[in-house]
Amino acid sequence: MASALLLSGLLFFAQPAVASDCGSLPAPGLDWSECTKKSLMLSSSELEGANLFGTDFSMTDLSGSNLTAANLEKAHLVRAWLAGARAEKANFSRVEAYRSSFVNIVATGASFASAELQRADFSGAQLTGANFEKAELGRAHFKGAVLTGTRFSLANLSRADLTGAKFEGPLVFDQAFLYLTRIEGLDLSASTGLEQAQVDLACGDDKTRLPSGLTTPSSWPCGSD
């Protein structure tokens, strides 16, 4: 009897966790964690508060979708379209989103910490209070994006384009890598964490404004790249 009870207990604890409902239609609060949703047309989907942890959305169209407060941590978003989506306070930390479109996304207060965002397009995005700490942003585009209070601590912004970005107050650049980062025309005088060594690597012009104590390089290291 004791052996039977022990075996029963072992079988109980060995049962797998409840699986995600990968076959369900888009709905607020659903669980698609670690599901495969590649190359699908899911534009204008209602996914507010959804659990999308590790979900594979590679090459999927999520444009215009509601991702408010959704958890997309470690999701695969390679070449995905999120243009015009709503993603306030969404969690994009550690996503893979190479060459993805976040054009005009509303991602106020969202986290992109440690995300892989090389060549991602954030043109016109609303990113007030967003967190890009330790994110890989090589060649990413932020033209016309709203970056008020956005944090780029320890981020790799090499060859990223911030020209035309809009913001009030400081941007946070402590220990960010700014190799050939385009900052032409930006008033960075209130920025925090910005150091001379970072400025010397970046691409500015005579309209670029720097924090007190930093000087404009005698020549900016900017080519036509």
TrEMBL record:
Superkingdom as given in the UniProt entry: Bacteria
Protein name: Pentapeptide repeat-containing protein
N-terminal signal peptide: 1-19
Keyword Signal: yes
Gene3D superfamilies: E3 ubiquitin-protein ligase SopA
Family annotation (InterPro entries): 5peptide_repeat, Pentapeptide-BTB/POZ_domain
Keywords: Signal
